[in-house]
Amino acid sequence: MPGLLLGDAFPDFEAETTIGKIKLHEFLGDSWGVLFSHPRDYTPVCTTELGRAARLSSEFSKRNVKMIALSIDCLEDHHGWTKDILAYNCEDSACCSLPFPIIVDDKRELAVALGMLDPDEKDKDGLPVTARCVFIIGPDKRLKLSILYPTTTGRNFDEILRAVDSLQLTAGKRVATPADWKPGECVMVPPSMSEEEAAALFPAGVYTKDLPSGKKYLRYTPQQ
Ligand code: BEZ
Question: What's domain 14-171's superfamily in CATH?
Fold first, then answer.
């Protein structure tokens, strides 16, 4: 079964979570969404990841992004593990809950349906655990980006935030962002745009890099 492809409608599943039962689309409302999965509760890399995600949550909210995690353990474990995550990651003793819910997927139904299992990493019963998936969902409930890391490689949540910035910019403007781009830096003119159209659309100017091929495809313009 092929997994979810970019542009696919993201399934509107119902799930039990640490904040109660949700329907995904209703939970997301008009926001963007980041759904990220974890191999198991009470595992070290995941504990650092959820803490990092929690520390960056205000940056995600500023961008109108709702976060939601998933792990293939039960609600009781999610609540118990949350205390460990907070104790490990939050200096502030007043910090008593995670700023996003964790989905309960102890029957692995969602993990299977969303193509999240890592066949190379098994639990003590020999069953595959969830890989570290990141799905970024647009306000139209379509999949805008997916990244799949194996269990042994923790994610970089600054990169996920950077990808959100690029997705949100390019959703509204006909530009593309280059390697390692950060908000405020120059963006690129898509190859399909004619010189005349680019000149009209980007009054701040378009800089074209001379290349050995003589082709004029490497075009920058200031971010507007
Ligand atoms: C972890 O989160 O630390 C982890 C989980 C499964 C396999 C390897 C590492």
Answer: Glutaredoxin (3.40.30.10)
* Mean pLDDT of the chain, nearest integer: 95
196's CB contacts (< 8 A; 6+ apart) are: none
Stated pTM of the model: 0.94
- Look at residue 128 in the predicted model and tell me its pLDDT: 87
What are the pocket residues of ligand 1 if the criterion is a CB atom closer than 6 Å to any ligand atom?
A: 39-40, 43-46, 121, 129, 151-152
Residues ≥6 apart with Cβ < 8 Å to 133: 35, 36, 37, 114, 115, 116, 146, 147, 148, 149
Q: What distance in Å separates the CA atoms of residue 166 and residue 170, rounded to the nearest whole number?
A: 6
Strands annotated E in 41-123: 65-71, 102-104, 117-122
* Contact of 189 with 220, CB cutoff 8 Å: yes
All structural domains of the chain with their residue ranges:
14-171, 173-224
Which residues are known to be catalytic? 46
DSSP calls for 142-153? BEEEEEEE-TTS
149, β-bridge pairs: 132
Tell me: the pLDDT tens digits for 155-212? 999 999 999 999 999 999 999 999 999 999 999 999 999 999 999 999 999 999 999 9
User: Which residue, among 11, 6, 34, 36, has the nearest Cα to 24 in the 3D structure?
Assistant: 11
Q: Residue 45 Cα, ligand 1 centroid: separation in angstroms? A: 6
- What CATH number does the domain located at 173-224 have? 3.30.1020.10
